[in-house]
Structures are given as structure tokens and as C-alpha cells.
Inverse folding.
């Protein structure tokens, strides 16, 4: 098992154990915390599918050329793992664990990303870094001469920061805190342990 797979697997184990210990009331409260974020992600996916679905599928995914999906290890936030776990069935999370343990899913099919298979990503709610990645050629084709579409994308970028960029209280920091206070600790808790992001929080005064 690669160090990347081990790190991802340990985070997933942490999240699953903690969620299993919370009870229905605790889980319901946690799901309410992510409602707005899931609504944002649904809007984002509709936009991407409508404007970039064919472009990205033909030019990158099927050709194995994507600058995102061909990475050995994508950047995953601990909050990504929490959100995906809340949005997934136990069976879907079991599959993620199995491919992380074996490393045979995406890499056996020509993808460098362990989470990919022929039908697409195994995550139910993809990591935000993946969801918001558009290469320059895709932007040129998808936006073209359409300033309204480009403006809409800029709005999505700003909304993403409102959930993830800790220059104010944000959901991704909040979710890390919930699990830290429960005794969980993971290298994926970037908003608490990454020096650059900690400096952002410090400058913001919290």
C-alpha cells in the first residue's frame, strides 16, 4: 500500500468509526451542517455537466490525459472525507476501502488516481479540488465567447472559498474541529495543521 493510500484509508476509518458512534441525533445534526454545501455542490455539478461534460469526458477522461485524474494523489481535505461519508452508503464506503487497500482500481485501468474506474469517480461527492478543476483548454472551449458563463464560474469559485478558505469561519474548518474534539487526528486536517492555512486563520483573528 502506498503512503498516499494509507493516509486516505486511515482518514476514512476515522470518519466511519466516529460517525458510527454518534447516534441518529448526532448524525442528523452533522447532516444539517452540510446542507448548504451539498446544495452548492449540486448546482456546481449541474453547471459542469451541462457545459463541460462532453469536453472533459472525451478529451481527458477516456484518453487518460486529464491533468487532474492522472495525478498519483489528489489533494483531499478531511472535510471532503466527512461529507462523502455522510452522502454514501456503507457499501459504497466499503468499496473505497477495498480499492485503497489494494490499489488496483483506477491504476489497473490506466488511471493514476486510485479512485477512478471506467464508469467514473468512486466518490459520491468528489473532493472539492477535483470538482473545481478546469484546465485552460477546457475553459476556452466551455466559456468561449460567453462572458455570462465565465461570470457564473467566478461565482462558484467565490462560493467555494466561503466553505473552504479559512479567512473567516468556514464549514471545512468546522468539520475538522468536530472530529478533533472527539479525539480524531489526521494529516488531512489541513485547516488545522497546514502552516499556510493556519497563518490565514491567524491573520483573520480566529
Amino acid at each position: 500500500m502506498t503512503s498516499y493510500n494509507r493516509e486516505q484509508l486511515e482518514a476514512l476509518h476515522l470518519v466511519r468509526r466516529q460517525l458510527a458512534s454518534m447516534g441518529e441525533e448526532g448524525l442528523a445534526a452533522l447532516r444539517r451542517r452540510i446542507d448548504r454545501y451539498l446544495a452548492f455542490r449540486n448546482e456546481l455539478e449541474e453547471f459542469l455537466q451541462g457545459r463541460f461534460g462532453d469536453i472533459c469526458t472525451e478529451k481527458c477522461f477516456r484518453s487518460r490525459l486529464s491533468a487532474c485524474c492522472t495525478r498519483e494523489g489528489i489533494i483531499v481535505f478531511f472535510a471532503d472525507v466527512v461529507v462523502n461519508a455522510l452522502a454514501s452508503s456503507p457499501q459504497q464506503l466499503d468499496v473505497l476501502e477495498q480499492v485503497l487497500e489494494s490499489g488496483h482500481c483506477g491504476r489497473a485501468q490506466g488511471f493514476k488516481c486510485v479512485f477512478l474506474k471506467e464508469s467514473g469517480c468512486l466518490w459520491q461527492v468528489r473532493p472539492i479540488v477535483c470538482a473545481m478543476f478546469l484546465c485552460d483548454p477546457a475553459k476556452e472551449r466551455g466559456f468561449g465567447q460567453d462572458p455570462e458563463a465565465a461570470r457564473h464560474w467566478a461565482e462558484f469559485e467565490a462560493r467555494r472559498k466561503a466553505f473552504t478558505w479559512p479567512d473567516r469561519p468556514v464549514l471545512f474548518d468546522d468539520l475538522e474541529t468536530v472530529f478533533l474534539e472527539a479525539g480524531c487526528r489526521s494529516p488531512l486536517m489541513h485547516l488545522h495543521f497546514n502552516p499556510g492555512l493556519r497563518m490565514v486563520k491567524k491573520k483573520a483573528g480566529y
User: Anything to note?
Assistant: The longest strand covers residues 116-117. The chain has a mean pLDDT of 86. Residues 3-204 form one domain. Strands lie at 116-117, 120-121.
